[in-house]
Write a structure and sequence with these properties.
The chain is of the alpha/beta class. It is built from 11 helices and 7 strands. The chain has a single domain, classed as Alkaline Phosphatase, subunit A, CATH 3.40.720. It has a 7-stranded mixed sheet with strand order 3-4-1-5-6-2-7, sandwiched between helices.
Length: 419
């Protein structure tokens, strides 16, 4: 059959049905030795947690800086772990766009401006996943409630939707496929590989007929193809390898409240790290987080509080619950003995839900065996501001990624930048 010369990246991704998910720090609190492993030769891990609506800044940021900061109303819910995390003030990437800006939390680049950057709006979790490659069954796991909050994006600018059913995540981690399912998966992989071969032939035939601009576009297109190929190779390598035995009872597929799903997802993500099923995970809390069980109003509605005392009190109930669950997750990772080898990035691309501001974001970096500094206050003056991307670049270098830039970074996050 004669190959078509009309190639569209969107059609490619839709046609083969492959989700594209699944490189030393100057900062005083991040250990630069042994880039990818610690002294016990344990692999390093990265977890990113994003909440679409952020946290009310008046109750989030401490009033004082340093290790002996006076905790805030929201942070007091994780005060038991205060020696194991650093909270940052005045960090962002100069983003605008309100809800659209939230999508750039882990990349520093909005989707609509991504074409001007070499790696588009690729997020730190996916950079880390590429670094891990086929070392684990899942290069990364993206989980979340409902449709998530567009937290995770691949090198080719494709959004990774979250697994939003705890039972499906449990099945992926621990349930062995039967012989018929394995045959079906192998057939699908073979078919998709054939499609990719045809696409490469079409691209090779077309390349000599294109202008320099079109060749650049084609090269970007082929990058997407190569990403799919890598994932197919990883899937084939792990297809016949047995999964670990679950240390918990089977998670049933049943309707749950969001309040029940969050700790269950945190349990499963901890197990995914503990069993080395993955070393990179994200968890997404959407704008549609259901709050009726907390006896408060609509979460989105409460975020538009207009400084109403009643709404702020209800919003604080939600903020405290989410922070308490984050503390639960930190505790579970400590119990599983993976916390000291795991950098946990936590926060939001929304600085103030009431005004839709993407500035002064709530950001916490926890774990990783780092010398945490309590509350780090970065410069607030516009000409001195430190890009959030600098912190992400330093985190990736801690993970073992050999990179000298990320997003809109101007360098690594060094102590010299702290005012």
């Amino acid at each position: 059959m004669k190959p078509s010369h009309t190639l569209h990246r969107r059609d490619l991704l839709r046609g083969i049905g492959v989700a594209l998910t699944l490189p030393f720090l100057e900062s005083s609190f991040i250990n630069t030795a042994a880039a990818s492993t610690n002294k016990n030769n344990s692999p390093r891990r990265l977890v990113c947690i994003g909440n679409h609506l952020g946290y009310y800044p008046g109750n989030f940021f401490p009033e004082t800086s340093g290790k002996n900061y006076k905790t805030s109303r929201t942070l007091k819910n994780i005060d038991a772990h205060r020696d194991d995390f650093t909270v940052f003030s005045n960090l962002d990437d100069g983003m605008t766009g309100g809800h659209n800006g939230v999508k750039a939390f882990l990349s520093g680049i909005r989707k609509d401006e991504a074409s001007g950057f070499p790696d588009k709006n690729m997020t730190i979790d996916q950079v880390a996943a590429e670094h891990v490659g086929a070392a684990t069954r899942f290069p990364s796991i993206t989980a979340g409630l409902d449709n998530g909050t567009d937290l995770s994006w691949t090198r080719s600018g494709v959004r990774i939707p979250p697994v939003n059913n705890p039972a499906r995540l449990f099945e992926a981690l621990f349930v062995q496929s039967d012989a018929a399912s394995l045959r079906a998966k192998r057939t699908r992989l073979t078919h998709r590989a054939s499609v990719l071969d045809a696409l490469r032939e079409s691209a090779a035939a077309l390349n000599g007929q294109l202008s320099a601009t079109d060749r650049q576009k084609l090269d970007q297109y082929l990058t997407s193809v190569r990403e799919v190929e890598k994932q197919l190779q990883m899937s084939q390598a792990w297809l016949d390898k047995p999964k670990p035995t679950s240390p918990i009872d089977t998670v049933a597929d049943e309707e749950r409240m969001h309040l029940e799903e969050i700790p269950l997802f945190y349990d499963l993500l901890t197990l995914a790290l503990q069993t080395d099923s993955t070393r990179v995970a994200t968890f997404e809390i959407p704008m549609g987080f259901r709050t009726a069980e907390l006896d408060v109003g609509s979460y989105h509605g409460l975020s538009h509080h207009s400084k109403s005392e009643e709404r702020l009190e209800q919003l604080q109930i939600v903020d405290s619950y989410l922070m308490t669950q984050f503390g639960y997750f930190l505790g579970k990772m400590k119990e599983a003995q993976v916390f000291d080898h795991t950098a946990v990035v936590w926060g939001s691309g929304m600085g103030n839900g009431s005004s839709h501001s993407n500035r002064n974001l709530p950001v916490i970096l926890a774990g990783g065996g780092m010398n945490h500094q309590g509350h780090v206050v970065c410069p607030a003056e516009e000409h001195k501001r430190v890009p959030l991307s600098n912190l992400w670049l330093s985190t990736l270098q801690w993970f073992g990624v050999e990179a000298d830039r990320f997003g809109k970074s101007t360098g690594t996050f060094s102590a010299m930048e702290i005012g």
